[in-house]
Amino acid sequence: MTSTQTVTITGYGSGGEGVARLDDGRAVFVRNAARGDVLEIRLTKEQPRSARAEIVRVLTPSPYRTEPDCPVYPDCGGCDFRHVTYEEELQAKLRRVNDALERIGGLSARAGEILSTGQTDGYRNKAVFHTAQKDGKTITGFYRPKSHEVVPVNRCLLLRDRPRGPEELDGLTFHIPPGSFFQVNTEAALLLYQKARKYAALSKKETLIDLYCGVGSLTAFVGRDAGRALGVEHDPAAIEAARENARRNGLAHIEFACADAAAWQSPVSGPDCVVADPPRKGLSSRAVSNILAMAPRRIVYVSCDPATFARDIRGLAGYTVNEACAVDMFPRTANVECCCLLLRD
């Protein structure tokens, strides 16, 4: 039997795992651990600079530890933080964003707050279930962590009960075609969009360009303050929906282009504000160059990954972070949304 070790959890990894130090100085990542836990652990995977481990016993529980309220947690990989208090989860996410800004971005800027609706269950407007055959029967659920084994889930606590239909945000209505992007948490999306609108601070004399605009929800929410707004998205179905959404909401001054945001040539010279909300992988070097070539006075950057968020901000040379925040778009999971305002130097 593999020998065990005693460790104290001091923080969290990007996947929500507890982090501690082994006697040899390596970092060890322990799923279902809480900051402040004293644990007996058994190593399950070793690498030269790090290791992974499982909990054998909780010797001294963290004051932030709580009893999970889901019968399939932590076997199901859908959630990461059901074993800690929600306040601890929020602080862990805010620390993750600020650690990324410091360590990856090399920046002195910090996210000053994490916005939350306070609703930890029943918030998701969509989810992807997986199926598998077991004992001659079809089972439906989510993957076990770090595997493709399906864990049966009869009811996910994260999902809302009302079928997905048109989404409403502050008086604006958006229809979402299948497969097109829209934030999974409508109530938290409102908090994010309100912050982006505040950062953009547009007037009717100004022009907005929104890159990676999807179905145009952020374009409409922020761009309704502008004199002209242009949304750019490569997905034809999303662009068709974006145009229809603009018409439905009476926003005749908002236009859309079906194009690759990294290569698209703006018809507007020196837009007042560029909003960018790229996929998790962040901005390509071409996209960064394209934004810099537009030379906007303000950039509002939205990201669902703190690491690429920090990397891309660092790459936007000639701009300085004026304000930043985190948004808990995905309660009970390790994921977190980021938003910042950059001003031209």
Tell me the helix content: 10-25%
Could you give a short account of the major beta sheet? Answer: 8 strands, mixed
Number of domain units: 2
Number of strands: 19
CATH class of the largest domain: Alpha Beta
What's the number of helices?
Answer: 6
Question: What is the second-level CATH architecture of the largest domain?
Answer: 3-Layer(aba) Sandwich
> Element order, helices and strands?
EEEEEEHEEEEEEHEHEHEEHEHEE
Beta-strand portion reads 25-35%
Radius of gyration (CA) equals 22 Å
The average pLDDT score comes to: 95
Strand order of the largest sheet: 7-18-19-17-16-13-14-15
CATH fold topology of the largest domain: Rossmann fold
* Shape by Cα distribution: globular
For the termini, the CA-CA separation is 60 Å
* CATH-level-4 superfamily name of the largest domain: Vaccinia Virus protein VP39
Detail the poorly predicted runs. Answer: none
Structural class: alpha/beta
Q: Would you mind describing this structure in some detail?
A:
The chain is α/β, with parallel strands linked by helices. It folds into two domains: 4-65, Nucleic acid-binding proteins (OB fold (Dihydrolipoamide Acetyltransferase, E2P), Beta Barrel); 87-122 and 161-344, Vaccinia Virus protein VP39 (Rossmann fold). It contains six helices and 19 strands. The strands form four sheets. It has an eight-stranded mixed β-sheet, sandwiched between helices. A hairpin with a 5-residue loop joins strand 3 (18-21) and strand 4 (27-30). Helix 1 runs parallel beside helix 6 (306-315). The N and C termini lie far apart (60 Å).
